[in-house]
Design a protein that fits this description.
By secondary structure, the chain is of the alpha/beta class. It has eleven helices and 15 strands. It is elongated, with a radius of gyration of 25 Å. Bound molecules: beta-D-glucopyranose.
Length: about 350
């Protein structure tokens, strides 16, 4: 691997003293700061979940530097604005600048080979996060990893939130008392692993738990609040009184759905359930306004990325000390966020 760490000499001049008319030689103490360079490429910085990970990463790095004197971690965060071509160029630039580690939130997860081959040729370790390339690609290079959460687990936890409510208080979800939950689903980007797996497994989870459901409609809102708002607005007119639950692949879309229901004053007729556990949704859950969400803690994702920075760029021990599954995967566990009994 190319040489990396940049050393910054910091000359600290000790105050000279005058003795017997002779000037005592000024003492010069020199401390060295080692700088590592991390390239962070995100698919779209407007994405609420991704920007939260980046924000926490900044905080984690700040804390890390405080407790590791002599180490400076420089991160350059670039936004692909949804274009894989743009992201490939950004990675090309990081490689030409000989960065120490690349953290990549890839735009098109089915198209990772170019980036992997480029980083591998240059001997730069690569960590994909949140948007998971296919397994063959992850194992295509020597130092290629994935940091994220298990999409199936998030879906099963979401199914548990719905099933627990249906068992304990069926009237919350089955408004018309026909013994089943009529639902609509707001999906994320169509080729994202979380969209595909969450949409499928939440329904499997409900089936396994014996919850009768009937789909009224579904559509993609690309993870976005504004697109979710437009869809739910349309659904309210199209299916009056039919939908009892809106299952959302993420929290930003859950917020969009909830905002429309609130404006239309039909929050009592329809429930909303999300995934991510963003602060705003957690608060609405605690107020009894959103049924629940699955906490995919963005702070934990940032800490995980920092542990790759620490191992690969600072300590240069490769993956030593990082707890990986299947040699290449760092998975963050999740948890349910549900309403307190008294607010339901
Ligand atoms: C999150 C979404 C986010 C998406 C971006 C998903 O894991 O749940 O909120 O928009 O990743 O890739």
């Amino acid at each position: 691997m190319k040489k990396k760490a940049v050393y910054i000499g910091m000359a600290v001049l000790a105050a000279g003293s005058i003795l017997w008319g002779c000037q005592e030689k000024e003492k010069e103490a020199e401390t060295e700061t080692r700088e590592v360079q991390i390239g962070v490429a995100v698919y779209n910085e407007k994405d609420a979940f991704i920007s939260s990970i980046c924000e926490y990463l900044g905080e984690e790095i700040y804390e890390y530097e405080k407790s590791h004197s002599g180490i400076r971690i420089r991160t350059e965060i670039v936004d692909a604005g949804g274009s894989q071509q743009e992201q490939n160029q950004q990675i090309e630039r990081f490689v030409s600048l000989e960065y120490d580690l690349l953290l990549v939130n890839i735009v098109d997860r089915t198209n990772a080979a170019v980036i992997i081959d480029r980083a591998s040729e240059a001997g730069i370790p690569l960590v994909f996060f949140n948007r998971e390339p296919v397994r063959e690609d992850i194992f295509r290079g020597q130092e290629v990893y994935y940091e994220g959460s298990d999409a199936r687990q998030s879906a099963l936890l979401q199914a548990d939130i719905i099933a627990d409510t249906f068992q304990e208080k069926p009237e919350v979800l089955d408004k018309d008392g026909d013994g089943m939950i009529e639902f609509a689903m707001l999906e994320g980007e169509s080729n994202h692993q979380d969209t595909l797996i969450r949409s499928e497994w939440v329904l499997k989870g409900l089936e396994e738990r014996g919850v009768p459901i009937r789909k009224i409609t579904s559509a993609t809102a690309n993870w976005e609040r504004s697109q979710a708002k437009a869809l739910v607005d349309q659904w309210i007119d199209e299916y009056p009184g039919e939908i009892e639950l809106i299952i959302c692949n993420n929290d930003d879309m859950a917020l969009g759905a909830w905002e429309v229901l609130e404006e239309a004053k039909c929050t009592d007729d329809m429930q909303v359930v999300g995934i991510d556990g963003v602060q705003e949704v957690q608060e609405l859950v605690q107020k009894g306004k959103i049924l629940g969400t699955v906490l995919c803690d963005t702070k934990l994702h940032a800490k995980a990325l920092l542990s790759f920075i620490d191992a690969f760029a600072v300590r240069e021990t490769k993956a030593e000390g990082i707890e990986l599954e299947d040699e290449r995967y760092y998975m963050i566990p999740m948890d349910m966020i549900v309403q307190e009994d008294e607010v339901q």
